[in-house]
Amino acid sequence: MPDTQISAIICTHNRDTYLGAAIDSLLAQDFAAEFEVVVIDNGSSDRTREVVEQRLGDTRVKYFFEPTLGLSVARNTGAKVARAEILAYLDDDAVASTSWLQVLYAAYEHNSQLAIAGGKVTLLWPPDIQPPQWLSTGLASNLGAYDLGDSMIYIEKPGLTPRGLNYSIRRSFLEEIGGFDPHLGRVGKNLLSNEELQMTELALQRGWQVAYLPDALVAHNVAPERVNRSWFLNRGWWQGISECYREQLAGKADIGQLQRGSERLLRGLYKALQYFSHPAERFDNLVYAYGQIGYLNAAIQGLISPNKKP
Which CATH number fits domain 6-226: 3.90.550.10, 3.30.1310.10, 2.60.40.180, 2.60.40.10? Predict the structure, then answer.
């Protein structure tokens, strides 16, 4: 496929329930030029391969097995085997709108300085499950929700970076920085993150641009097991660890991490008490505070063993 204009990549690990719909949404794209769908099976033990094989009759679909667990590892493998300059990553439990690839591709075609782009993400709730009262807008973002409005925006603050489930990147930039950092990003069942935030930081530091494209719309399935408080607390814990690791990788590990983490922990607890009568705001701040305990735990370990990589 020498004239492939964009490569759609799905990195998957034991998500056979959702994977077929994700692939089908890519095969249904309204995109006139050549594109491919690359599925990276990251050590799955379920029916993942069978789900993909059912769709290999379409020559646009490619299957590759990556035995080393890790989302960043799988993304790097996807980039290696894909053919196009523009790489579009879709999560295995997401569904892309029919114009997703076209919107992404057009943005890169019109801006040679664009390194990263992603779009709006809405949530698909399981049948008979409603968003709980304790779920704030901020915590909904942990489920993948992402909405910066209805106009295209160039991202200047890394914290607003596009979500990894609806994410694209220019190959030349990815190669310039040496790929996704395997020390960040999910590995198996742990919830390490912040790899997209780090990528945006690197892009902006090097003079590239990062864009939010509202019309590059994707819907993300909310797994039933995530609709409980314990999942969000666990997610907050790993978010704190991820932030600490990101600072360490950037050479910012020092005693000041203990002060920053402690201040944020106290601030989260104070706000949880302040919003005690508001379930969503109260729980949001409790999750934030709990995340700072994870941050402090990782910071202490980093200070004790400074030469040990995260």
Answer: 3.90.550.10
